[in-house]
Design a protein that fits this description.
Strands 1-2 form a two-stranded antiparallel ribbon. The chain is globular. The protein is mainly alpha-helical and 255 residues long. The chain is 68% helix and 3% strand. It has 12 helices and 2 strands, in the order αααααααββααααα. Helix 3 packs across helix 10, helix 4 packs across helix 10 and helix 7 crosses helix 8.
């Protein structure tokens, strides 16, 4: 099953839970003001999608992650994570340039060359030892640097917490990745295999790296949804360099 069909299936499965949620949208001025303040006007819908994601995590993703950790030694898991990280450098490089961050782009280019050659196709993180730190760079950040506000908070099927701007950025980054275009020379089947394998490997690796932390949050949170929303915003704002008091741009898309 393709990722597109899987996402469509998830949307159809989520729809029955979403329809009653629309009836629960805030109606009083106070409730509406609170919804605007947290920038989550679609909270009932988002909670429905969040619950489906959490159900899939418990049913499928977490067990696969635990099997992956059990079957693959630490050393090999680290090599796999490094390769996947290195494969993301070209997209970071492109976004560094689009943001006008030429110095960051230079560092990203050097990292990719060093880790791909000396680091044996990215298996070993050599660039860090040369003071070439990994740079931030995705198309959501690029849109922010161009002045686009975030829009409302949303929860994406499988991908989780996001907003309108970052959801657009995610789609552009996926299309921007050069590896699928290189694989396309081998035909559509090869391209699809590369795209799906990369998607699954990245998701599995990230879940494995946060296995205990994520489960601890789920167990200890009084409201897991609200906790993940807060953590996502703090993490994203730190990536964008937004200070706690600098929140005006977050609402530009809604005005």
């Amino acid at each position: 099953m393709s990722i597109r069909r899987l996402l469509l299936t998830l949307a159809l499965l989520t729809l029955p839970a979403m329809l009653p949620a629309f009836a629960e949208l805030p109606k009083s001025p106070e409730a509406q003001a609170e919804a605007i303040e947290v920038n989550d006007p679609l909270e009932p819908v988002n909670r429905a999608v969040f619950d489906v994601n959490d159900f899939l995590d418990r049913l499928l993703i977490k067990p696969l992650t635990e099997l992956y950790r059990f079957a693959i030694p630490d050393y090999l898991r680290e090599r796999i994570a490094n390769i996947l990280s290195n494969m993301g450098e070209p997209v970071i490089f492109a976004n560094n340039l689009l943001q006008g961050e030429t110095s960051r782009a230079a560092v990203t280019a050097q990292r990719f060359v060093v880790n791909t050659t000396v680091g044996l196709a990215g298996m070993y993180e050599v660039a860090e030892d040369l003071d070439l730190a990994r740079q931030p760079g995705d198309f959501g950040q690029t849109l922010y640097s161009w002045g686009l506000g975030s829009g409302p908070y949303i929860v994406l099927p499988l991908f989780g917490p996001s907003n309108i701007r970052d959801a657009i950025g995610l789609g552009v980054d996926m299309v921007m990745s050069p590896w699928q275009w290189i694989a396309a020379r081998g035909g559509r089947a090869v391209k699809n295999e590369v795209v799906y394998t990369s998607f699954a490997a990245n998701g599995l690796t990230r879940r494995e790296e946060n296995l205990e932390a994520y489960d601890a949050l789920r167990t200890g949170a009084l409201d897991f949804y609200a906790q993940m929303r807060s953590i996502y915003r703090q993490y994203r704002n730190r990536q964008l360099g937004i200070q706690p008091e600098d929140t005006s741009r977050l609402f530009d898309f809604m005005e």
